[in-house]
């Protein structure tokens, strides 16, 4: 139960979800307190205008991305860790695995591997059982990495974790078991 709440509850606190909650409150208050209702409507509109503005989103992303090191600056490591969330399963109507918005992490891992920054890639990610036939994200990521020329022997899959905490815990177990000390 907690797993499903951890995936769905944050949606209410993203700007769109928060604006929808405010608009619902405005709808409930409309008949009895029209001024308060108007406040919630105006607040929702301002929230959506500010958070959906391209200039604001670029500033927020830039504030995080300046911290990343270039590939040339990275020292060698024992393994590259790729967390789930970067693929969409090969379910109808998709004929194969697709990359999601976060799919650049898989491409970046392939680039690091091909530049010999680490000999192993650990793929961590399962899937919620929304559908019975969906493969774990780690398997989907392996398919994509194989298509980029990363051999299967260089890949370790961890298909059981369903959130970031489980990713970290399970990858730590794999690293300890395989004598891996330094991770990307």
UniProtKB/TrEMBL annotation:
GO biological process, one term: Gram-negative-bacterium-type cell wall biogenesis
GO cellular component, one term: plasma membrane
TM spans (from-to): 12-31, 38-56
Keywords, sorted A to Z: Membrane, Transmembrane, Transmembrane helix
Full protein name: Putative membrane protein
Listed PANTHER family: ENVELOPE BIOGENESIS FACTOR ELYC, INNER MEMBRANE PROTEIN, PROBABLE PERMEASE
Gene3D superfamilies, alphabetized: HUPs (3.40.50.620)
InterPro entries in the cross-refs: Cell_Envelope_Assoc, DUF218, Rossmann-like_a/b/a_fold
Organism: Richelia intracellularis HH01
Pfam families registered for this protein in UniProt: DUF218
